[in-house]
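Q: I have two molecules that I believe assemble together. Could you output structure tokens for the complex as a whole instead of separate predictions?
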Amino acid sequence: SQKIEQNSEALNIQEGKTATLTCNYTNYSPAYLQWYRQDPGRGPVFLLLIRENEKEKRKERLKVTFDTTLKQSLFHITASQPADSATYLCALGGFKTIFGAGTRLFVKA
Amino acid sequence: DTEVTQTPKHLVMGMTNKKSLKCEQHMGHRAMYWYKQKAKKPPELMFVYSYEKLSINESVPSRFSPECPNSSLLNLHLHALQPEDSALYLCASSQGASGLGDKTQYFGPGTRLLVL
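A: Yes, here they are, computed for all two components at once.
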């Protein structure tokens, strides 16, 4: 069955450092992969989408890579800030979207 | 307007009650979704509507009954729920409804449901 794993349940980093979150998947050949941010008690917010023919995508301080050979996506937040503290979810699929369990990021001032 | 709205924000109901959750979007999106999310877990897909027709039902118990009255509205009717159904219920919409159309999902804030 299709499976998505996000490597860390929680990640603690110091303000100003780069946070790197990992998403691995199995039994799937996605045309694209998405990353969402979710704050407690709120709905997920779309951040970035990367297609299978794209190696890297950037948006302000965010960068996503997609390696279809390794079946892995990396999500980077550079110059992290306490306001970046949230749960980050990777997602595969179109209509039948499957979300990873998420990584809770804590950025300490 | 890039907002998905959901009402109510909070709902407490007994196991014999009938209630409805409502979701609305005015982005012209042709696909709408219901998800259930338990604490510290990812959203789990329940239903997908495409062009106002139910296209995916993830084997959801019949005590949950979705309805799509028009392209902007999505309801979830609740009846005879169990305490384990307590969760955050999220509605989402996407522009794409078929093929390679954009399926980036825009989520509402959710309805926090407690079943006593």
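A: One point stands out. The two ends of chain A are 41 Å apart (CA to CA).
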